[in-house]
Write a structure and sequence with these properties.
By secondary structure, the chain is of the alpha+beta class. The protein is built from three helices and five strands, in the order ββββαβαα. Strands 1, 2, 3, 4 and 5 form a five-stranded antiparallel beta sheet that branches. The N and C termini lie far apart (76 Å).
Length: 93
């Protein structure tokens, strides 16, 4: 059986910071995390918008950068407390 070359689909219309948007599995939205991106055959990858670029999986995977990030939604109570304490300090000046 022939090995089928697989591709990720890069959406070139926008990005998030320095992170690319990739098509998710089954074309169900977009992801920045390559491990959550779908893998498509060449025919599938080339059958979309002109702004969607087929990138060979091995090329994309060779250029992965892992970011350490925190979901701001999980720490928003702490952020609010920080804003309030700074506001109180500024009022006493």
């Amino acid at each position: 059986m022939d090995d089928v070359k697989l591709f990720y689909i890069l959406d070139t219309r926008s990005c998030c910071g320095n992170c690319a948007f990739w098509w998710a599995s089954n074309g169900q939205g977009y992801v920045c995390d390559l491990s959550a991106a779908g893998k498509y055959t060449e025919a599938e990858a080339n059958s979309h918008r002109p702004t969607d670029i087929a990138v060979p999986c091995e090329v994309a995977e060779a250029n992965v950068v892992h970011h350490v990030r925190v979901d701001v939604q999980q720490i928003s109570p702490y952020m609010e407390r920080g804003r309030l304490s700074r506001a109180k300090k500024n009022k006493t000046r």
